Amino acid sequence: MEWSEIDGRIQEFDRTYSRFRMDSLVTKMAAGAGVYEFPEDSLTLMHFYRRLYDITGGAVTPLIGAALEDLGCDAGYRLTPAPVVRSTPAWDEVMIWRGNTFQTAAPLVLDVGAAGKGYLVDIIAGLLVGFGVHSFVIDASGDLLHRGPDFLRVGLEHPADISKVIGVVPVANSAPAASAANRRSWGSAGRVLHHIVDPRTGEPAQQIVASWVTADSAMVADGLATVMFFADVTAIEQLSTEFEASWLRVTGSGSAQWSENFQGELFR
């Protein structure tokens, strides 16, 4: 196995999609309108994003980057919100997507954080299998992918107390992902902000505080975990059936909702 190949693939992904480094393609895209060619494997990620964008009415969008920057989550980790948060543009009004080529009508701050990390996990898993490794766990902090004959029991972190769990899920040849408002959060003057921003309001999502999704693909689980913060149960069930996923989410009032095929144990 060539670990250097895995590291190189991670670096290549980062040079394409990171809005935190000056030499990335995403940073060039933010500098001005133009035509930008992404790697061929961007097709999988952007097709998935477009599905999530459409079913959530634009709430899950790769164009949320400017709002995140203005709220303080920028390359310098300023963590201080700007006086005005830029509005998130509609996909079809500012970006034409043909294959792996993007033509933009304005500078755009692309952010693929809702599903990109999960997609990278899938890519690394594909490399491992190509190397002949068929039993492994990839832990990407909030995104897991397990392959092999054994199984894991994974705790579901309490959204109000990270020293506790509210339940456990079995993980066997699957990819669980979690998303929560208490992770990557910041604030000042009594205003609490976090990274799951609703582009329709320019503010962090409020009604849902944590979500968990299990699917075969880490990209799917990662993306659907973000959808949980914005979509109603009908849309969530539609996506869960389409992608063969199970899910659980916790509301701000402390109540929980879950899919019929959720196989975990929720503590009472």
Describe this structure in words.
The chain has 268 residues and is α+β, with helices and mostly antiparallel strands. The protein has 2 domains: 3-104, no CATH class; 136-266, ApbE-like domains (T-fold), CATH 3.10.520. Helix content is 31%, strand content 28%. The protein contains 8 helices and 16 strands. It has a 4-stranded antiparallel β-sheet with strand order 8-13-14-15, covered by helices on one side. A 3-stranded antiparallel β-sheet has the order 1-3-2. Helix 1 runs antiparallel to helix 6 (116-130) and helix 6 packs antiparallel against helix 7 (218-227). It is globular, with a radius of gyration of 18 Å. The chain starts with a helix and ends with a strand.
Write the layout of secondary structure elements.
Elements: H1 3-17, H2 25-31, E1 34-37, H3 42-55, H4 65-70, H5 91-94, E2 95-98, E3 101-104, H6 116-130, E4 136-139, E5 144-147, E6 152-158, E7 161-171, E8 175-180, E9 185-188, E10 191-194, E11 197-198, E12 203-204, E13 208-215, H7 218-227, H8 233-243, E14 246-251, E15 256-258, E16 265-266
Antiparallel strand pairs: 1-3, 2-3, 4-5, 6-7, 7-16, 8-13, 9-10, 11-12, 13-14, 14-15
Helix pairs in contact: 1-6, 3-7, 6-7
